[in-house]
Amino acid sequence: MDQPVQRYKLRISYRGTKYYGWQTQGLSIDWKGTLLPDGSQPPTIQVICRRAIEKVVGHHVKLVGSSRTDSGVHAKGQVATFDTHMTNIPIEGLRRAVNSRLPPDIVIGTIEPCAAGFDVIRHTDRKRYQYVIWNAPDPSPFFGELAFHRWQPLDLAAMSDAAGQLQGEHDFNAFAKPGHGRLNTVRTVHECSVHGRGPKVVIGVTGSGFLWNMVRIIAGTLVEVGSGRFKPEDIGPMLRSRDRALTGSTAPAHGLYLQWVRFKVEQNTPLGGDHDQQSQNS
Fold first, then answer.
1. Rg (CA), the chain
2. Angle, helices 91-100/45-57, rounded to nearest 10 degrees
């Protein structure tokens, strides 16, 4: 006899280097990238996680993620949901069984039951992204695919000053990839910061929502402030211009991480990475 259907919420960490982002993609006739071993579609985090879950619960599931991270982007705290009637499987056993069917660069950190009406997209309140830069003369042999290498010295004080001016509610059209398709480009950045320890520089951006490539363009612009191409006081005119041509380059995907997601229906610790540092971002 089938059990009642239960919705589960997952926290997923992944190294996005080998994947074409989170979202399942259709296979076009002119596709030139790699495919899954069965040749059915490009490898994405969503499809690989969904298939692993289906092998454990024994039926098709709809896996819905909170963020559509792009190709090559990583996550410490992606959140997703799926429904199943196979509630007789102990939660920790379910988590371990799914992880055993995933490649080592994708890990389910937690699985927990949630309300049937919980919507991982609609109930998102804010997200924190981190952008990691390796600022040293030589690249790191260990961080090559996990950080953006910049050999030129960066002025972190200037970058921090510029980052602070991005906080608040602004029209971020100048910081979005053209063709984003959004009629409303006003977004709220709750926090934007720059911190460095040794050669590692981390840009943190927390917001209620983001436009296409917005965090990567913010990161690229702040890097160009740090290298002297722009000044901190240029940020205001950039925002007011709404002109993408006046902002900095789009920083490469491999330095970007989805750190955590916080939900409107949860007032406690957000489900995501770095649970002990929740004064931070999205």
1. 20
2. 120
Angle at which helices 214-226 and 156-164 pack, to 10 degrees?
Answer: 140
Place of tokens 């100048």: 174
- Percentages (nearest 5) of helix, strand, coil residues in the chain: 25, 30, 50
3-class secondary structure, 166: coil
**Is the domain 6-114 a CATH 3.40.50.2000 member?**
no
Kindly name the residue from 70, 119, 161, 274 that is annotated as catalytic. 70
Q: What is the pLDDT of residues 173-199, one digit of tens each?
A: 999 998 887 889 999 999 999 999 999
**Class (C level, CATH) for 124-265:** alpha beta
Specify whether the CB–CB gap between 132 and 147 falls below 8 A. Answer: yes
Mean pLDDT over the full length of the chain: 90
**Backbone region of residue 156 per phi and psi (left: phi > 0; alpha: psi in -120 to 50; beta: other values):** alpha
Q: Under a CB-based contact definition with an 8 Å cutoff, are residues 270 and 79 in contact? A: no
Rounded to a whole number of angstroms, the distance between the first and last alpha carbons of the chain is 42
Enumerate the domain spans of the chain: 6-114, 124-265
pTM of the prediction?
A: 0.90
DSSP 72: T
DSSP-derived pairing of the beta strands 148-150 and 124-135: parallel
DSSP 85-108: S-TTS-HHHHHHHHHHTS-TTEEE
Mark whether 70 is an active-site residue.
Answer: yes
The DSSP code for 219 is H
